[in-house]
Amino acid sequence: MQNGMFLLVSAVVAVAVFFGARLVNNDYVFFAGYTVLQFIVLATAWNILGGYTGYVNFGSAAFFAMGAYATVFFHKLHPLPIPVLILIGGVVSGVVGLGMGYLTLRLRGAFFAIATLALAVVLATFVVNWDYVGGSRGAYIIRPNEIAPIGPYIQYLFLLMLSLVVLALACARGIERSQLGYGFATIRDDELAAEASGVPTLRLKLVATTLSGALMGMAGAPFPYYIGYLQPSSAFGLEYAVNSIAMPMIGGTTSWVGPLIGAVLLGSLQQIATVTISSAVNLLIVGLLLVGFVIIAPNGIVGLVQDRLRRREK
Amino acid sequence: MPLLEVTRLSKRFGGFVALDEINLAVAEGERVGLIGPNGSGKSTLVNCICGTLVNETGMVRFAGEKIDGLLTHERTRRGLARSFQLPRPFATLTVADNLRVPLLYTVNARRSPALKPFELDARCAELLTLVGLSAKGAKLPRDLTQVEMRKLELARAMAAEPKLLIADEAMAGLSQSEVDDIVGLLIRLNEGGITIILIEHIMRAVMRFSQRLVVLVSGRKIADGQPDQVIRDPAVERAYLGQ
Amino acid sequence: MGLSFDLLINAVVAGILLGGFYTAVTIGVSISFGILDIVNIAHPAFIILGSYIAYIVNQTFGIDPILTSIVMMPVFYLLGAGVYQIYYEAFEKRGQESLRGLSFFFGLLFVTEVILILVFGVDYRYVEAWYIGPSWHLGVIDLPLRMLVPCLVALALFGALQLFLSQTFIGRAISAVAQDQLALRLMAASPTRIKRIAFGISIATTAVAGALLIIIQPVEPSVGREYIGRVFAICVLGGLGSLPGTVIGAMLLGIVESFTSTFYGPSWAPAVAFGVLLLTLAFRPAGLLGR
Question: Which of A107, A212, C131, C186 could in theory staple to A49 by disulfide, Cβ–Cβ 3.0 to 4.6 A?
Fold first, then answer.
């Protein structure tokens, strides 16, 4: 299926999901669904750098939070419509991704991973000390109750996140099938051989980091409006880092479908667990699943399905 | 003007001198054999020429241009290709796609208009046939035998359409007839215009292939000339005593 | 900013004492990352585990934390050997260390933290010992014993390890395993076994580091994460694989952090280590003493 066709089909599916959700007539669906959709974007974004290129990013929270804090900044300065804020979040996080990549991507993958952790903490410390966006006390964002012609504001946010999901999935899928996808795969498989074959590895890694960061920033931009009260501990929370790694690893890192499956499964599981048990236990489950899958099923659910199909062929 | 000119190239690893003031000139169209005992620095030399390692002193010129500051992929795009001593295939790509990568990133980067998808497919198929892997195009590298992996390694270097190809021990583990096949293939490539440096331990192959023979021992070049003369050089014999 | 001499020299001394402690925290990573090339970012999780064990024993039996940690070292050694075995079977053998290995350790770090939260909650825990509280005074210099004792224990630990690595057969085999696995095999030593021993030792050090940590400061489960940056910053700063380099890196970082804390306030402290790490990676990745 060509890229344009996929975009069309997924847009149709997205619209169907939206109207399906409206039929349920319960705002909780939108609140919970927003979180799952957000995770789809984060997982897909992470996978572009982690799964396709092989560079692990532990600082997803930083890119996400920067999108959120860019929104807070502009909200205090001069409120802007959310789609614009999404673009700004994307640019801010994209630029930071580019900068950090430039500093660390010439080193081994392990150093890059550690550097991403470092980045998350450094940025969190800056934000905690920056009073204009609330510092450690946090910032209140008052969102309107309704927005015409959609209705409840949460549905508007839900719709925006749906569009980001379509964008992220189309992006990931488009890359997979393009020359860029080959380039990323060679970097993951053997960077030295990739260079010897003419692949400009540094340039491609920077593309991956920038794109991945930008998508995460875009996912973070509407977050303050969703949550109403933004604190550094929630924006920079470790659950974003763990989930954006666990969801693609469990779903499967070699294809755009993996993060989608992982995010839907794990995201829903967590929503249920948080409500029924506790949020700490639900994080424990995610962590254990991550460790388990990484050891036993390194290619994730997609990998398991592919193995089953291949065995049936024989 | 030589195609490749290495001048006073030295490389150290901490206190260990891997290469000591190597001078080497390779003319266009030549077939050069590079031999030496294990650990003499042959692969290190290749790595320095290709940019995988950075040499401390000395200079490398390719087609008249000083390439010392260039990244490996930039050198590949200028026509300098190498195969790795231990095959390094792209494990998650099919055998055919392994060949597609240099076509996309080196050949297409050099020419316009770029090769179209069906042309790319055709070239991949051609290269696979050339090395005898046409039945394995859709397989993954892990399904190949050691010998087939070496052929893939060579084919991938050839896919970059180089002016100079450095083949680093491409024939280890091959049977005699396979060795002859590869030597024949390399000679044909050379007759088609590609300059080749062959690094090998299999003396039969080296002697048959080389128009010129260079010997490296403990990081120093101890001989450089006509193969049959170099072989009889007492210094070379001493280096290979017991080999 | 009135730069009084007293303040300055105390900041330096505090930095050195802190640096001594940081040595204990980092010495295990110097082995696992510097020598074995394993990126164990769960190292701080083991340290926190050590802290909580010291806390329980101290609360229940009143036993000195350092004593507890020495008794716990063999237990942690076995734990480390076990973790390495899993790591080896699942990742190293298959050649997939980078992405999956990192995720594995990250998962371990995360799971440990969450389990600790579930068992102990997020309150700060601390221990009691005779040297927590009193301070010696050397002229204008303050030497709080709760910093001095850990510093001395840490340096003793470093000394012991350095001796072990340079004088014993296994120790030298460990130093060699990074460079020449073939030579090791020829000496009839299995590289895997050597690596397992080394990793076990690296985790054994966390038992001690954990006890020292809870002496120096109250501990709660997320404290471990702050130390990831410090640990790797020190390793990189000091040059990978060099144990003496670790001490120097630790001292340097200790002093820089101490100055930042004294003159700019403690809320900037977490950023210091990570900032140093980023800068070092960007400009001098081989470290100050690097090879």
Answer: A212
